[in-house]
Structure prediction request, 205 residues.
Amino acid sequence: MKDDFFFEYFTIQKKNVNCIIKTNGKMNKKDVLFPAVLVGASIIFIFVSMAVWLSKGQSKKWISRKIKIGAFILSLSSMAACSQPQITCYDVAPLDNFQFKGTQNDIVVVNPDSSTNINGQITGRQAKKFSFNITDEKNHILYKDNIFAKDNSYDSIVENFEFQINKNIPDGKYFLHLFSTEKENQDSIRFATQTQELKIIRTNN
Prediction:
């Protein structure tokens, strides 16, 4: 009805716990439109109240509008009060994260004819001791050893590392498992800190 245009201009919907405001067919977060809608509704309420006063309270039409807009403002205030605070989320960098140099498609590639060294950087370091093992596709451990910091001490949040693999491991695809402990304690840890694909390929093959 035309008499209700002040009230029908604003429609409140609730979606996914957050209060959402619908204006002119567009959906926007309440924290963007709430203040504007509340101010607009308050101005209209004052205008309608003046119309009721000028009519000396005899106009049912203006009284009805005043009641509806007043209820609307109360609804806005209630929704603003009960809505849950927004939580800002940030990606947390992984701890004891190994980053390798010279990877190919995120695969560590070693050519024993040139070098058996694997090096890189640990970011977000928390542990003070690290180790690794190499397994085949059947999860058989072919080799394991400790990983030492290049400066011989794990005392910084970011550390450079280098270790060597067994040069007698045949060419093929393997898994490089990294642990935040010494090699002797690997069996006591259920899961590795990180697992990386490893490919060993010699130049002469």
In short: Residues 2-82 form one domain. The helical segments are 5-8, 30-54, 60-82.
